[in-house]
Amino acid sequence: PEGAYKVKANFFPAVCEEMLIVQKEGKNSCVIEKPPCGILKLKIENSKGEFVPGKVTFIGLYPTKTPFFEPENPLETGRCCESFKNSCFPSEEGLEIKIPVGTYLVYASRGPEYSIDKKVIEVLKNKYMELIFTIDKIIETPNLVSLDPHMHTQNSDGRIKIEERIKSVIAEGIDVAIATDHNYITDYSPILKKLGLEKYLTVILGNEISTSGVIHFNSYPLEPKPEEENNGAINPVAEDASVLFKRSREKEPNAIIQVNHPRSGTIGYFNNCDLDPEYASYALKNFDTSFDILEVMNGPRFYGENHQTIQDWLNLLNKGYYFPGVGSSDSHVIDGGEPGYSRTYILYKEKKEGINVNKLINALRKGHSFITNGPLIDLKINGKYTIGDFFTDKDGKIEIQIKVRSAPWIFINEVRLIINGERKIIFPIKGRTKEILKLNQEISLNLKKDSYIIIEVLGNRTLYPVVQRFSENGSIGRAILPYAITNPVFIDIDGNGKFDSPLPHKIELIEISK
């Protein structure tokens, strides 16, 4: 049709645009030329000169456009759709790339435990430049294992191959990754070994059982069965989650069942079962609570669906339903959907001895973990009890110590203490933006009844560009802001040896007549 058009060409990594005016008469054309490039060699090291397996991110400074590195899923393959990529993963030998002439802001990073390094560079035509970035591990985590329990590859609807998925996970500082392609059991192990990166990552096999209109949930750890359809994945066709839970238990009795993104449209289990969003007081008759854990953070954004899921989780806790919470990325791409945001940190004292998958899974089942897209939380009650613990204290006098740490590029402005689902105490954080220890707070409480305690952390400055999702139309609710939340510590005050929930009435299961 007649009109004015913007025509864009991706030369990978050059992105070029021209205007085209289309008229009925005459020749309508424009020429888009591939721009000249320079050559960069990229390396990431620590202060000792040792290799760090991180990522380098390029952002064009106006009028230079942000580069678009060639994706693994160009449109002509028909495998999902082309995904934007402006970062890369230098190896120990370094990585040479061509980049269009222009001015760039360049970041090196490796997840929330590391510092970042940034440079502004000018790329000149046919010129060679070596860039060495220095980042250090500045938050020690000897008793924590970072886990991302939900991610995808081209074996389902992910947009990258297994090799690139592994590199992206390692570059974000994840210790353990669970492969959860839809209705297929993917094994990262052979390619991880081929890449020679086993010392950086432990992989676990899983499966995201996916039935739209019913539920999406993960099952792990699993064993591959090459002789079976979809490498041994269960049949995902069913009208109720109960049937799928039963099939999963029969196939692998010891595997965890993790309900994913329960408020996400027609693939959200809580939506499909009409779970009461205000108090969890009722749900449809087919609401089955026999799962093990709940994904309370899907992706890095606290607001929106995740905000409602966390409220659901607190409502369920108040009614005596305990599903330890986990955070995951549900990553299908790399840039704009980075793995590890969110992630789950598991309390794991034997980290130096290596990671035992069975011990790790057992700690996850017990809720000895917290969820985060950046901040790290340490919680001690009465000097010895911590996240996921249960203890009896008949006099109700408890001493709480809260420590919150984050890298200087992650800004924290508020820490909340949640008691029985209510945000009771708020600690504002001021003047510590450059410090790693953001809060070291002791507080005494006098509890009158059985209680659970949760710590929640929020920040008000975006994680962009390390996490490349940004605010839409300037809305703070759409930005990726720092967030973390712990699993509960349960305290028995009446001395009966168990936790009595504040709202003892169970969920009312209702039947809606057609």
Which range best describes the helical content: under 10%, 10-25%, 25-40%, 40-55%, 55-70% or over 70%? 10-25%
Percent strand equals 25-35%
Assembly level: single chain
Q: What is the residue-averaged pLDDT?
A: 94
Helix- and strand-based class? mainly beta
Count helical runs: 6
Q: What does the main sheet amount to?
A: 11 strands, mixed
- Which spans have pLDDT < 50 for at least 5 consecutive residues? none
Number of strands: 30
Please tell me what the overall shape is: globular
Using only C-alpha atoms, the radius of gyration works out to: 25 Å
How far apart lie the N and C ends?
48 Å
What's the SSE blueprint?
Blueprint: E1 3-10, E2 15-22, E3 37-45, E4 55-60, E5 87-88, E6 95-100, E7 102-109, E8 117-123, E9 128-134, E10 144-148, H1 162-171, E11 176-179, H2 189-195, E12 202-205, E13 207-211, E14 215-220, H3 241-251, E15 256-259, H4 269-272, E16 282-284, E17 293-298, H5 305-318, E18 325-328, E19 343-347, H6 357-366, E20 369-372, E21 376-381, E22 390-392, E23 397-405, E24 414-419, E25 422-428, E26 437-446, E27 451-458, E28 483-486, E29 489-492, E30 508-510
Parallel strand pairs: 3-9, 10-11, 11-12, 15-17, 16-30, 17-18, 22-29
Antiparallel strand pairs: 1-2, 3-6, 4-5, 4-7, 7-8, 10-19, 13-14, 14-15, 19-20, 20-28, 21-23, 23-26, 24-25, 24-27, 27-28, 27-29
Q: How would you summarize what this structure contains?
A:
The chain is mainly beta and 514 residues long.
